[in-house]
Amino acid sequence: MKRVNIILMGFGHVGRESLRLISEKREFCRKHYCLDMHFHAVFRSEGAFINSSRLVSGDVWKRLQAPKEISKNPNWRTGFALDKALASCEPGVLVECTPSNIKDGEPGLSHIHEALERGWHVVTANKGPLVHDYCSLIEEAKRCRLALKFSGATAAALPCLDIALLSLAGTEILRIEGILNGTTNFILTRMKEGKDYDEALAEAQKRGIAESDPSLDVEGWDTASKIVLIANACFAKCLTLDDVRVEGIKDIPSHLLQQGREEGKVIRLLGTINREKEKIDLSVRLAVITGSHPLFGVDGTNKGLTLITDTMDSITVVGGKSDPRGAAAALLKDIIHIYHFHL
Amino acid sequence: MKRVNIILMGFGHVGRESLRLISEKREFCRKHYCLDMHFHAVFRSEGAFINSSRLVSGDVWKRLQAPKEISKNPNWRTGFALDKALASCEPGVLVECTPSNIKDGEPGLSHIHEALERGWHVVTANKGPLVHDYCSLIEEAKRCRLALKFSGATAAALPCLDIALLSLAGTEILRIEGILNGTTNFILTRMKEGKDYDEALAEAQKRGIAESDPSLDVEGWDTASKIVLIANACFAKCLTLDDVRVEGIKDIPSHLLQQGREEGKVIRLLGTINREKEKIDLSVRLAVITGSHPLFGVDGTNKGLTLITDTMDSITVVGGKSDPRGAAAALLKDIIHIYHFHL
User: Fold this and answer.
1) Beta bridge partners of A284
2) Which uninterrupted H or E stretch holds B304?
3) Which of A17, A221, B106, B316 could form a disulfide with B294 if both were Cys (CB 3.0 to 4.6 A apart)?
4) Taking Cα atoms as reference points, which of B111, B134, B112 lies closest to residue B240?
5) How buried is residue A201: exposed, middle or buried, by Cβ count under 10 Å (0-12/13-18/19+)?
6) Distance CA A329, CA A323 (A)
7) CA distance to partner chain B, nearest, from residue A159 (Å)
8) Which residues have CB under 8 Å from A48's CB, separation 6+?
9) Per-residue burial over A56-65, b = 16 or more CB atoms within 10 Å of its CB, e = otherwise
């Protein structure tokens, strides 16, 4: 049995769900992967809960969710910093789930650097640090012989990177096309059914699919971030958001709207990675696709990715829970990849 | 650079394509995976071509395909047995591509045992040995700390096993459903378009999709073999073809035929793995599916697999070249998994 010390950073939807899922799966991981998951510290903005493997059992979990109750708990610390937590036990894995900030990558960027410096592996669902500074992070991880995994940042449970890097090993990937943002795909699906943009967005917000400020999604930046990460991972590049031609779904040109209304056609926001030898071309654009396109059936909040190769033709993968639980499952998978499969 | 000694056994469509593909990809594998692929011996029924890394360059390749010319080549040996080849260099990987024999698994079964006994890894596109004697082969490989990989036997380039074992690590797979046989899917697609069974089969045979004796495909045994392999790999079981309820496509009941003709419905031959705790239920059966089914769009010779899990919902993967070149690409991928990723 191998002990896996975990520090969880960030206690939003994904962080919370990761704590819950990994705790629920503790016995499963012991049985199937000989891994003993142990939460060394769980950081939320007000402080950290340390050194308890019973974090989600009954009332501890409830108290963890009700900050007022936490302060009475002997395992609760305020003023406890990440570097102290990283130094206070055998290195394990930092699960970085702070909010994604694509402007400067903080605070996740600093957390990841700190963890790598202290000999900790990192798995993250946070796109910010990676779109901002992919190459220096990957280089640092390599230099320290540590893993930096980010399945949860590319499309939660949709296994984009696994397929590209593992299933297609030995092929040359020529082109990748994806529907990678559930919010915009939901809005476009509703618009196909007759709603206008504002109605569809309002419904998405009401259902908790779109955020109150939906700009990162509807302006295409979330999709752009994901294709930057996928392209960098697949082609060992250092591309950033500046390298992507980005289009959103707010102002769909009327000729596209009209085509998209026709029978057997739909409008989709496609993230595309096109490769011509060493040149990689990235774009996020509205496209009208027909039934012959492998992503035609991907509707609602669903996601999908098509990879076109030289020797295996095209592989399309669709589905995977795209909510916080799906992201948490992707983080757990990354931890298992590091400790069980040594990937 | 790591040298990979390869013995290729079997020189039918898949074996031939494997020799060609791995040779073509030699520089690519050196550059991307630091692997130096070297063919130590290539066995065909009349003899073996040994110890040349120039097997596919120009006229050597042509001579290899024209048995009468081979005998003049200094690298050609008759009466050279596998055990001799296995013992005559540092152990590497046996690429087993002899014809699939689901009755007793031979001759592949003996080849795989011999290779493992001599310390060689095995990758195979041959279902026969694995459906016949999965557990003893896997146990033997484990005991010897060797890899036995069979992506090429489960659905060629469609990454069934990678997704199940790697991308879904940490989940519990509850159910798997697949369209796993290109020949039957092609026939059913043509029947939907109005042809009758005999016409559709004749077209498939004319196009080289169906074999002259198509019984393994049309009676459902090819699909059954694949789901036995997938179920055994996913759930560490020792199931055989005796554990599968198998239905073919030859005598489709008229009520199904009628439903399948309706708009928005299709008949498909589904291989299904249903799991209830420790009980695994396997079947191959005709089903009428509608647009809401994730495999609805899988037509022609295409294949697809849907995996339903506890924490990642359902993942569907579709596509992948399903001809000898796709199988060869799957074999190469397995070799890279063994030597580069240590999987």
Assistant:
1) A246, A271
2) strand B304-309
3) B316
4) B134
5) buried
6) 10
7) 6
8) A41, A42, A76, A77, A80, A85
9) beeebeebbe
DSSP strands (E only) in chain A: 2-9, 35-44, 47-50, 76-77, 93-96, 121-124, 148-149, 173-179, 244-246, 265-276, 279-290, 304-309, 314-319
Residue B185 confidence (pLDDT) above 80:
yes
Is residue A167 within 8 Å of B159, Cβ to Cβ?
yes
Q: Check CB contact under 8 Å for B311 and A325.
A: yes
Mutation target for B interface from A302, A316, A341: give the one with most B CBs within 10 A: A316
In A19-161, where do the E strands start and end?
35-44, 47-50, 76-77, 93-96, 121-124, 148-149
Task: Report the DSSP beta bridge partners of residue A111.
Answer: none
Residues B225-270 pLDDT 10s: 999 999 999 999 999 999 999 999 999 999 999 999 999 999 999 9
Which of B290, B304, B273, B174 minimizes the C-alpha distance to A318? B304
Q: Chain A residues with CB inside 8 Å of B312's CB? A: 157, 320-321, 326, 329-330
Buried b (16+ CB within 10 A) or exposed e, B232-265: bbbeebebbbebbebbbbeebeeeebeebeeeeb
Q: How would you label A134-154 residue by residue, b for 16+ Cβ within 10 Å and e otherwise? A: beebbebbeebebbbbbbbbb
Tokens encoding A51: 């050194």
Q: How far is CA B169 from CA A25, B64, B280, in A?
A: 11, 43, 19
A77 Cα to chain B: minimum distance (Å): 31
Burial label for B58, CB within 10 Å (0-12, 13-18, 19+), is: exposed
Query: Is the ipTM reported for this complex over the cut 0.85?
Result: yes
Instruction: Output the six-digit token pair for A206.
Output: 């009401």
Q: Nearest-CA residue of chain B relative to A235? A: B32
Residue from B176, B167, B313 nearest A303 by CA: B313
Model confidence pLDDT, tens digit, residues A198-242: 999 999 999 999 999 999 999 999 999 999 999 999 999 999 999
Tokens of B50: 């040994």
Q: CA-CA distance, B110 to B108, in Å (whole number)?
A: 6
Angle at A123 between CA A122 and CA A129, to 5 degrees: 80
The helix/strand/coil state of B170 is: coil
Helix (H) or strand (E) holding A66: none
Any idea what DSSP says for residue A8? E
Task: Give the pair of three-digit tokens for residue A179.
Answer: 């529907």
Q: Are the C-beta atoms of A160 and A153 separated by less than 8 Å?
A: no
Give Cα B172 to chain centroid, integer Å: 24
Cα–Cα distance measured from residue B71 to residue B92, given in angstroms and rounded to the nearest whole number: 26
Q: Considering all CA atoms of chain B, what is the largest pairwise distance in Å, rounded to the nearest integer?
A: 63
Q: Kindly report the pTM of this predicted structure.
A: 0.95
Residue A103 pLDDT exceeds 80: yes
CA A334/CA B260 separation, integer angstroms: 42
Question: A127-143 vs A108-117: helix axis angle to the nearest 10?
Answer: 10
- For the segment A49-68, what is each residue's pLDDT rounded down to a tens digit? 887 656 655 555 666 666 67
- Check CB contact under 8 Å for A321 and B313: yes
pLDDT at residue A163 tops 90: yes
Tokens 């098509």 -> residue: A306
Q: Which residues contact A103 (CB under 8 A, 6 or more apart)?
A: A128, A132
Place of tokens 């980010």: A150
Give yes or no for a contact between A252 and A267, defined as CB atoms under 8 angstroms apart: yes
